[in-house]
Fold:
Amino acid sequence: MFEAASWGFVGGAALIIGALAGIYLPVSMRFVGLIMGFGVGVLFSAVAFELTDEAYSRAGTDAVVLGLVAGALTFFVGDWLIDNHGGHRRKSPMGMQPGAGPMALVLGALLDGIPESAAIGISLVEGGSVGVALLVAVFLSNIPEALAASAGMKASGQSTRHILGIWGAVTAASTVAAGFGYVALGDADPIVLATTQAFAAGAILTMLADTMVPEAVDHAGRLVGLVTVLGFGCAFLLSMA
Structure:
C-alpha cells in the first residue's frame, strides 16, 4: 500500500510543480495550450495501452464496455454538477469565471485526478511494479493541467497560498487514491480489476474530451493536433520499451 501511495504522490506532485510554474513563470497562453495538448496525447496512450488493453486482456469485452460506460457517465454527471457551481473553466489560463467558488475548483480537480491516481495503484496489483508509462503519463499531463489552472486562478486574483493549498489537497487525495486502489483491489477477481481499469479509462477519456482538448485548442489552435500526436508517440514508445 505504501509503495502505491508513494507513486500516487509522485504523480500528484506534478500538480504542485505545474502550479508553481503557472504562478511564477511568464508563460504565454499559446505555450500553455501546446503543453496541454502534449499531455492529452500522453494520456490517450496510457488509456489505450495501460488501462483498456490490459482490462481486455484480463476479462474481455464485457468488463471493458461496462467499465468505459460507467466511468464516462460518472465523470459526465460529476463534471456537469461542478460546471453549474462555477468550475467550468478550471483548466483555463484565462481565469475563472465570476462566481467560481473554491469548492468547485477542488471538486473539479479531484474529479480529474482521482481516476488517474487509482489507476497507478491498480497497476501494482499483479505486476508488482508500477506501470512506468502510466505514471509518466499522469505526471506529464498533471503539469500543464495545474499550470493552466493556476495561471487562470492567479489572473482572477486568487492568492498564491490559496492556489497552492488547492493543489496540495489534490496531491494528498491522489496519494490516498493510489493506495486505496491497491488495497481495495489487491485480492479482487480479474473481472472486478478489469472493470475498474476500464472505469478509470472511461473517466479519463471523458475528461480529456470535455476539458483539456477544448482548452488546448482554444489557446494554441491547430498546432495542438501535432503536439498531441507527439505526446501519444512518446508515451507509446515508452510503454513498448
User: Anything to note?
Assistant: The chain has a mean pLDDT of 80. Residues 2-240 form one domain.
